[in-house]
Amino acid sequence: MTANTEHSSLLDLPPLTAEHFAAVEDKVASLLRTRCDVVAMQGEALLPLEACIRAAAPRGSTALNVVTGPYGETFGGWLRSCGAEAVTLTAPFTGAVGADEVARALREHPETGLVSLVHAEAATGNTNPVAEIGAVVREHGALLMLDAVASVGAEPLLTDAWGVDLCVIGGQKALAGPAGVSAVSVSARAWDRIAANESAPRRSYLSLLDWKERWLDGGRKALPHAPAQLEMLALEAAVDRVLEEGLDSSIARHRAASAATRAGVRELPALAAYVTRDQDAAPAATTLRVPADDVDAREVVAAALAADPGVPLQAAGGALAAEVLRVNHYGRSADRAVVRDALAALAGGLAALGVPGAADAGDRAGEAAAAAWESALRA
Ligand SMILES: *Cc1c(COP(=O)(O)O)cnc(C)c1O
Questions:
Q1: Contact 242, 31 (CB under 8 A)
Q2: How far is the CA of 35 from the centre of ligand 1 (A)?
Q3: How confident is the model at residue 43 (pLDDT cuts 50, 70, 90)?
Q4: pLDDT, average across residues 310-328
């Protein structure tokens, strides 16, 4: 038997101490600009998202679920399965929801106890004005739950200043970290309401209250179970790398990647930004519309990846798959060269599909992207 020494950095690690675990939570808290409790849950971001809804939506209560993409649709299913009434506020996926629309919905449903909202949707490429929405929700008195998985590290996220009671993040998007661990901040108000909810999960993998009672309330001295050690270390490394770069410069890099992609795409035939207004465009990913009767978005992605397999392109999922594709310029891909190469690959793919005017569009798109990157950094 021969030992594979390449694996040794993943194995035989000393146990992750409670102190170290708490320190990672504190780093996440600083990234979220929160002084509230942060719980690092041992699973992909869907775990804290579902945990928040099951904790904060008592049976028979009313929740306002804002749907600006597929994650909001998922939340609606969980709310109904909790026995809550889910009032749905849908905004076109090509834009954002307005705080005035949230205010109107809350006036129509004054009994609302929870508002669930996605900050940025990588799948649809839009971002919502959380600061304004947070003020409206706070005035009404409902809890605000925010899915910030696709926004943390890519755009400002001021959890406490915006009045976000439950803020969920994952490591796998702009933080360029692991997908298997995630974190949620919980405000004091949220803890009170969760504790009062008899149907909130207890003694369960989905339980926030277990973390409070078995971990936080004891001063974070003893972990309730063996932590997901590799993922926690990877999350810490990802957060450290962002804090070393500077959160502001990570945010500026993502904003520039979005501006550059949108500017470059204007030079490409047959493609247009799916999100109409620049201010509604998520800094983490740009979605592009392909006129359905001409070409299928999946064919464009396949042809572009044939031109350059390394670029972060993906067909949209679900109902949008034929019409929409994504440029995932988050994490290490929020980079000038990556955006330029993605645009060149799209031009190459369109040319291979016989789209007129595509062959020489790649260079023009690259130049437009470079100029937009520079002016975004100056803005
Ligand atoms: C990416 C993302 C998640 C996490 O989902 P994965 O499909 O596992 O990456 C959750 N919410 C939002 C808004 C996301 O963009």
A1: yes
A2: 24
A3: very high
A4: 95
